[in-house]
């Protein structure tokens, strides 16, 4: 967990506001007993997670693909090669939807803007985290690797059997 108190508070506020703005149907599924808190979520989302990242083509057609994601500082980081369709879509239309679904146990659904990480301390920290996980820097994987951070504007977190999930993964928060 790299999240600061402020980042956890911001994520918690976003989760609560998003669920509150959700449809009646969504709120009937993600009830208080199924919702995850920010603190629980960051503990559950350690390590690499497979993301479904949805972008839109220039014709307005949706495209979804799987990407590696790491949840750092209360949001997703993910990367791709600059020659990929995903990078082209994001450069032209940075609004994305990102979902991580772990079977029927838990899910985080989010919408926001994919921001290309510029050289500097934030990118250095992301690179170091990814390098520690994979054993090589993602920037060694190609000539034009692009790393992104998701600026979430909407997010809901769900666990079918929340208490059992948390207990089974040793989370007491």
Structure description:
By secondary structure, this protein is α+β, with helices and mostly antiparallel strands. Helices cover 34% and strands 35% of the residues. It is built from six helices and six strands. Strands 1-2-3-6-5-4 form a six-stranded antiparallel barrel. The longest helix has 17 residues, at 5-21. The radius of gyration is 16 Å and the shape is globular.
User: What would the principal axes of the Cα set say about the shape?
Assistant: globular
The amount of helix comes to 25-40%
Please give the number of β-strands: 6
Order of helices and strands: HHHEEEHEEHEH
Please state the CA-atom Rg, rounded to the nearest Å. Answer: 16 Å
- Tally of alpha and pi helices: 6
List keywords for this structure.
single chain, 173 residues, alpha+beta, globular
Topology:
Elements: H1 5-21, H2 24-29, H3 38-44, E1 48-56, E2 62-72, E3 75-81, H4 85-92, E4 95-102, E5 106-116, H5 121-134, E6 145-159, H6 162-168
Antiparallel strand pairs: 1-2, 1-4, 2-3, 3-6, 4-5, 5-6
């Amino acid at each position: 967990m790299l999240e600061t108190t402020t980042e956890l508070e911001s994520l918690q506020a976003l989760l609560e506001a998003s669920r509150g703005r959700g449809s009646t149907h969504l709120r009937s599924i993600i009830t208080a007993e199924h919702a995850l808190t920010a603190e629980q979520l960051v503990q559950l989302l350690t390590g690499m997670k497979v993301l479904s990242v949805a972008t839109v083509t220039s014709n307005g057609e949706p495209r979804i693909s799987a990407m590696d994601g790491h949840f750092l500082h209360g949001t997703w980081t993910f990367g791709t090669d600059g020659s990929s369709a995903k990078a082209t879509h994001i450069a032209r239309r940075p609004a994305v939807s990102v979902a991580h679904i772990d079977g029927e146990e838990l899910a985080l659904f989010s919408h926001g803007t994919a921001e290309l990480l510029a050289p500097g301390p934030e990118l250095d920290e992301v690179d170091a985290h990814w390098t520690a996980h994979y054993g090589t820097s993602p920037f060694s994987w190609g000539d034009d690797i692009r790393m992104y951070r998701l600026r979430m504007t909407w997010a809901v977190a769900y666990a079918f059997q929340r208490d059992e999930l948390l207990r089974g993964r040793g989370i007491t928060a």
